[in-house]
Write the structure tokens for this entry.
Amino acid sequence: MINDNSETILDVHGLRANVDSTEILKGFDITVKSGEIHAIMGLNGSGKSTFAKVLAGHSAYQVTAGSIQFSDQDLLALAPEERAQAGLFLAFQYPIEIPGVANSQFLRLAYNTVQVQRGNEELDPLEFDDFVREKMKLLDMNPDFLDRSVNEGFSGGEKKRNEILQMALLEPKLSILDETDSGLDIDALKIVANGVNQIANKDNATILVTHYQRLLDYIVPDYVHVMQAGRIVKTGGKELALELETRGYDWIGTGGQTNAGATA
Amino acid sequence: MSVALQNLVNQPYKHGFVTDIETEVAPKGLNEDIIRLISSKKNEPEWLLEFRLNAYKKWLTMSEPDWQNVHFPKIDFQAISYYAAPKPKKKLASMDEVDPELLRTFEKLGVPMHERAALAGVAVDVIFDSVSVTTTYKEKLAEVGIIFCSISEAVQEHPELIKKYLGSVVPVGDNFFAALNSAVFTDGSFCFIPKGVKCPMDLSTYFRINTEGSGQFERTLVIAEEEATVCYLEGCTAPQFDTNQLHAAVVELIALDNADIKYSTVQNWYAGDENGVGGIYNFVTKRGLAKGVNSRISWTQVETGSAITWKYPSCILRGDNSVGEFYSVAVTNHYQQADTGTKMIHLGKNTRSTIVSKGISAGHSNSSYRGLVRITPTADGARNYSQCDSMLIGDQSGAHTFPYIQVKNSSAKVEHEASTSKIGEDQLFYFAQRVIDAEEAVSMIINGFCKDVFQQLPMEFAVEATKLLSFKLEGSVG
């Protein structure tokens, strides 16, 4: 939903980042306003997931240049948990397993931490149980998930649903979904997409990082960006994704123009 | 992140202070004269002196064990002082008469014993530099016929029990450190639960080493007669010193028919600094004899301290249908080394044992599980289940598992499971992305990992253990 008067949630300029000493992001720009859904597409190794992790503050990546403004905060000055507090959410491509920590306990601690910061009441275990079960219905999740260890022994689809459940609980301002569609069968994809659509509203924004157009059949983006060699090389509307699907990425070439349509 | 974590992990040892109390210290070194000195200081009967001298003679012929997976410079046993006691000022009739300095020490440790005893219903036998200062709740326990006192007192008051049971589970020549203990033990706890009595409260002992350079050789003896049950708690903290201190204790448990002994330990001796300087050498022999039919011996330990830990609380399952249990959490950080585990010796029919061991290694530390499950030819229908899990924190630490399984009866059923996991940067990043800081994340992961053991601990201990673990490990990741 594009509205020129919306608040700018994310403003990234000239972002460069290394992993070890290899430069992965090479002058990345994007602007995201509230109410918008953006898709970042591109081949493996183009830097899509790196961008997601750099945003969230993963310590394996060093930012060497550029700026990231998140609402009124300088995101690069914040620690990962502070970025999360500020309302940035990353749905991981490979959610990690945490044996021994019950999902319910984990979800409640995350939820309550955010509520306290927002000046709201914490929920006790019983209240939270009722609350989270409601949210789980949205994702057609079995309540058994609450008693299991975080992501441990979850199938790929279950892990992805658990990510979206966390997104629903934390009500972030900006969500980045890193390859959330990978490993999902079509039914699971629909459920996850439905969850994301229900969470999206005029006050938040979503960035979908994906290889395939498939996800975009269910979550319709306002902007589609094509990433190559660490930067956005082309930006268009949702039809660009369909074009990529039929023509592949080759025709875009490695031209230098960063047609950052999102800034328009 | 790692700077904040670094600061957390480098918090100084909370219990590192020395109480200024006049101490009577024996000259350094070990010989027959020293043993005679200890025995006469303690006004012991002749047979006990013989027991000590016999142990000493055995010890002289033995050499230190070298099979364990720990490394340390050779101990000079002649450089240790084998006896230190606070100078007795006068006989203590009540808590009010206890040296205020001593009480302050316990307060610093968070062990206000009178309050603790009263509020928690725990009788605390306070051991201070090898001498029991006071024993609380003794009368109350005496009403039901329970004897809970220092071992020196028991030697005076109940010599027949000591004579009968001392060394009956851990013989004087059992191993190098047990022999040393048998020769020079200065004090410890004695607990006797007579036939048919269920001990009305948890019995608790707080140990503490205070005099620099003095070894401490505790001796504990717990006897549960037929149908008796007892839950015994042992907690340890020690002040900070730069010279290594030897702690070679012996604990013997005896359970007669249908008796039940549950022995829980939280061990937090000084572990040395972040460079591995100082710390306690904790070389302990703990063994329980499930002598009677249907008896049960259960060990639960949370080992967080000591520079070196060498201990294998074991069960000899002699009575038919007897049960042995071992639940352990061993945490090592910095340059700590732990080689710990258990032995389950199945002699009786239908004996069962359970082993749950959780090792957590951080920093440059090394943690080993070493366990023996032996099913003898007489142990028809014996069963064992063992689970050994290791968790590594950082990339400089080590975890090792040495399970020994000897089955000599074809009707036995023995299971062994093991796993190794790691708290990684990526797990912490995941938590951080969900607004949970590293401190809380580590605490959650560790508590989840140790859950099976913690739930075996009495409530208070479980809370203490949870805090202790978080405290020990905060900041070791990153």
